[in-house]
Amino acid sequence: MDDRDLVKIFKVKLSEQGIRQTEVCQEAGKPQSHLSKLLCGGKSPNLQTLLDFINATDRLYPGFADQYWLAVAGRPTIRTLVDSMDSTELAVLLKVVGDRVAEAKLKAPMMEVA
Predict the structure, then answer these.
(1) What's a single GO MF annotation on this record (predicted)?
(2) What is this structure's pTM?
């Protein structure tokens, strides 16, 4: 993933949430033309500047940065997660899942048989 992809994701996230460039720039203390050029590809992205805009947006809209970074990382599949684990990590995961299933069964109301 290159810097342009990071900018594209930021642009998409702003659009999805209806966030205006003017308010982000005001919060970041940067001119709107700076963000506009960045989002339109007219300015070479600087990682620190992009982070400043992301953090400013997160201050205005708490949770924005989390959503942005999740979009950057992509959504891993369960298969990818399991395949990335060694046998010890997988054993711990299975134990935790088993405990959760057992706990859910204890909390579930017992059905009466007629």
Answers:
(1) DNA binding
(2) 0.65
100/94 Cα distance (integer angstroms): 10
Flag the least confident range among 53-62, 69-78, 101-110: 101-110
9 and 61 part of one domain: yes
Instruction: Find the DSSP H helices in 1-114.
Output: 3-16, 21-28, 32-39, 47-60, 64-73, 78-83, 87-107
- Within 10 angstroms of residue 13's Cβ, the number of other Cβ atoms is 20
Residue with tokens 């805009």: 53
Q: Are residues 69 and 83 in the same domain?
A: no
Residue that is written with structure tokens 């970041």 in the block: 28
Whole-number pLDDT of residue 9: 94
Q: What angle do CA 67, 79, 103 make, to 5 degrees?
A: 80
7 and 49 share one domain: yes
